[in-house]
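QA checklist item 7 of 12: single-chain prediction sanity check.
[x] sequence parsed
[x] length recorded as 336
[x] structure emitted
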Amino acid sequence: MATLKVGFILARRFTLCAFANFVDVLRLSADEGDRSRPILCSWRVLSPTMEAIASSCGVAVQPEERLGDPARFDYLVVVGGLVDEIENLHPDTVTFLQRAAAAGVPLVGVCTGTFILHRTGLMQGYRACVSWFHHADFLERFDGLKPVSDQIFVVDRDRLTCSGGVSSAHLAAFIVERHLGRARAAKSLHIMIIDEAMAAEEPQPGMPLALVADDPLVRKALLLMQQSIDAPLAIGRLVAQLGVGRRKLERHFRAALAMTPLEADRLIRIGQAKHLLRTTRRSATQVAADTGFCDLPHLIRTFRAIEGMTPDAFRRSPMLSICAGPQGEGSSPIRP
């Protein structure tokens, strides 16, 4: 009989990669090599209707079992996806999750699965991890709750939540290590070409929290900046894509973030540079290219102005911070 039993609840238009990363860690830890026999752990996709569930990319997954007794599982994992679908959970699934919580079954929220657990009233008093990308969406929907968006996952007693994507593999590895040992967890990640397990406290590679804004225009601009890190947008192209004038965009940024769009873009790029310096072996020259700086001296000048040290000194420092520091003087990657 399997030592670790996991049930999956897939929301409509769930994120396929988050589900696949989680379940593949279980699969690879359950048997020798990659033979996939559910010997040491088992996993089942559950549904109240047994109808195929379409992911956000259109690929559908066929459930294997009806909901039944939640106590037959060691963990129940809710995999979310598109934010607009979190209200559409089947009533029987809501009841099932509430019964699971009452029975003491640990609940896992993956991607916007965390939203679903909150919506069903099962995260009160718990810390919850949410992707930086959905941080503002979460605040809009849940008054008085401040999600954690600077870690890849959060474990708070019998609630485990993660930001989605590859972080779901790291959360699954945490669970496997807890029940089957470190060797099993490491084996799964190595086969998946993931160097090593990351701790919960590892930062999310995304938007610095200093740049979280409620203003819709500012949020759209920040996402465009984030999406063009390696190929900087000229400020003229940025305002053209947004359909606004430069002065209007600058007014919105000053009101929302007390900085200019150029300064915000610089913080995004330095935040990504810090993430790459901390988590990869890429040279500082390659990091400069990957984050849209003209050359290494440009990165060094800007990095020193913001962080008070060079990229190499940051990489050697035992006290690494992913959050961008105070603003300073230096060239901006956005070309005016």
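[x] summary fact logged: Residues 209-316 form a domain with the Arc Repressor Mutant, subunit A fold (CATH 1.10.10.60).
[ ] second reviewer sign-off
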